[in-house]
Amino acid sequence: MSSEPVDKDQFGRRAAPASPIVPKTASEALRPELGTPPPKRSRRSRSQVVVFFNFLLSLIILIVLGAGAAVFFGKREFEGPGPNATTTTFMVRPNSGVSEIAEQLERRGLIADARIFRAGVRAYGNDSAFKAGEYEIKVGASMHEIMDLMKSGKSVLYSLTIPEGLTVEQAFQRIAGEEALSGDMPAELPPEGSLIADTQRFTRGATRKQIIDKMMADQTQLVQSIWDRRVDGLPLADINEFVTLASIVEKETARGDERSRVAAVFINRLNKGMRLQSDPTIIYGIYGGKGKPADQPIRQSDIEKRTAYNTYVINGLPPTPIANPGRAALEAVANPSVTDDLYFVADGTGGHVFAATLDEHNENVARWRAIEKQATEAAAKAAAQPDADDAAAPADGAAAE
């Protein structure tokens, strides 16, 4: 038996016989050897269907990523500050669509991109939620804030104030001149005293007829509510006489602390059958609802002029009010002061001094005329002073030379 040694590996197993060494030429030794071949692809992996679905999946992923990026950047733009550099107003016309509004906003420089605004409005489900009106767009308002504002309907409100004591004709002039209102004025004036003296709030485009109708309805409600709470025993035949006397009180004094006392004077005179002798009734009888020019005084001939309203020559009350009385004047007539006063005259301080007898009244009138005289003389002296200064100027100049 041969005793040749046998090669074994580290685990004691017989090692494979060594391959014989085949000598190579220099060119063969330098030639690169072939690498490990790739695994063979299955028929399934080579299928066109699989290739298509792989492409489709990749496309979907790209679309989702693109859409996510678009939503992210679009939302940031929709929520971020806008380009508006100054507070301005924007009108949403009735029946305007989101696309039309978006384009107008972009043209006005109130939003950066109409497409993003449209997409944002639709994403929030507000396609048909916008309300017509005029809106105030703040500086830097975002598209989201503009959307919320137009959805809320909080339009810009305008104010029209009709002060107490204006006639219907004078009130109509103010209403006609309000440029934020629309529509024509009524062809005929409503009855004197039928418009409430108050501040009306409205949105641009409201009609003048709407404002007038509301003022008439509010005045009717106000007058009725106060008439229903009047004290007993007033010498007034009906609600028209109530408003008429209130309009006279309104024109006689603007002082809230003496309205009820002025009302008491007229109530006492009516109870005694005395004429009211109210100067504002003279003016209305001559000039009507237009009012007396500011530079036109009441002359003795005016006091004696017979008109249906001149309470110096007629008994009782005029046939209609002479102005639109306010709440305070109506309240004063419905609940007058309890006094014996029959007269009053201006006191020179913006108020009046009252008297129960003619002698007291004549003394008060004399004091008032003295005050008027002093005021007239002072005004004449002040008017003459500039002329005196002008005359002295050349002499001063000559002396300086």
Structural commentary:
There is one protein chain. This protein is mainly alpha-helical. Among the domains are: about 80-150, Dna Ligase, domain 1 (2-Layer Sandwich), CATH 3.30.1490.480; about 155-225, no CATH class; about 235-375, no CATH class. It contains 13 helices and 6 strands. The protein has a two-stranded antiparallel sheet. It has a two-stranded antiparallel ribbon with strand order 3-4. A two-stranded antiparallel sheet has the order 5-6. It is rod-shaped and about 160 Å long. The protein starts with about 25 loop residues before the first helix and ends with a helix. Mean pLDDT is about 85; it is low at about 390-400.
What descriptors fit this protein?
disordered C terminus; 401 residues; mainly alpha; 13 helices; rod-shaped; two-stranded antiparallel ribbon
- Secondary structure class reads mainly alpha
- Measured as a percent range, the helix fraction is 40-55%
Mean pLDDT: 86
Task: Report on the biggest sheet.
Answer: 2 strands, antiparallel
Task: State the helix count.
Answer: 13
Q: What distance separates the N and C termini?
A: 162 Å
Name the shape in a single word: rod-shaped
Strand content of the residues, in percent?
A: 5-15%
Number of strand elements: 6
Radius of gyration: 47 Å
